[in-house]
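Quiz preparation item.
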């Protein structure tokens, strides 16, 4: 009986080792990237002498409040990029209705840019993007409905004068992170594709 158990334990250890080493570093790197997709955060600074005021909160495109017409530098983390990123934001919201257009990325055309409120990296830069409606009436009945992905995000910006903070939580990336451990890639963002 003990010999049979020893063979079973040995076989289990061999299979477990092969699975662990066979998955490679890419698997764990994908899980790390999925985790970093959930939270965006950073310090905002005004890159010129003119002060900027931006106070905005948009909860899942259903409740929006505040105003922002800003061109800032974001020192932090967003959409798998870290460092000094440009944050351009046109936003107004009065709970039931509002409008949003936001872009976060690098200025140089060679570097891939990302967008707060993520859309494909091939999407238009800030100047070519159309604003979309937000708020519990605007998001559902407005002329320009928001992209589906933005319903899972909650960006906040509080900037007074020359410094502020930005934070966003993407709850739709949480299931991608959790299910990714079972090799399901519902976000279609892993290295090997979805």
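Solution:
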């Amino acid at each position: 009986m003990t010999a049979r158990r020893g063979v079973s334990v040995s076989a289990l250890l061999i299979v477990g080792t092969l699975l662990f080493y066979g998955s490679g570093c890419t698997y764990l790197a994908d899980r790390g990237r999925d985790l970093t997709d959930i939270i965006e955060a950073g310090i905002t600074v005004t890159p010129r002498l003119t002060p900027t005021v931006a106070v905005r909160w948009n909860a899942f495109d259903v409740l929006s409040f505040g105003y922002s017409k800003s061109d800032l530098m974001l020192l932090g983390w967003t959409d798998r990029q870290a460092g000094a990123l440009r944050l351009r934001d046109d936003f107004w919201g009065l709970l039931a209705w509002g409008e949003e257009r936001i872009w976060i990325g690098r200025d140089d055309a060679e570097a891939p840019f990302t967008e707060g409120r993520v859309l494909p990296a091939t999407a238009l830069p800030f100047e070519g993007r159309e604003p979309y409606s937000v708020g519990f009436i605007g998001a559902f009945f407005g002329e320009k409905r928001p992209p589906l992905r933005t319903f899972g995000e909650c960006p906040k910006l509080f900037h007074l004068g020359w410094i502020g903070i930005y934070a966003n939580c993407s709850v739709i990336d949480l299931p991608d992170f959790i299910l990714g451990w079972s090799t399901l890639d519902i976000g279609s963002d892993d290295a090997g594709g979805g």
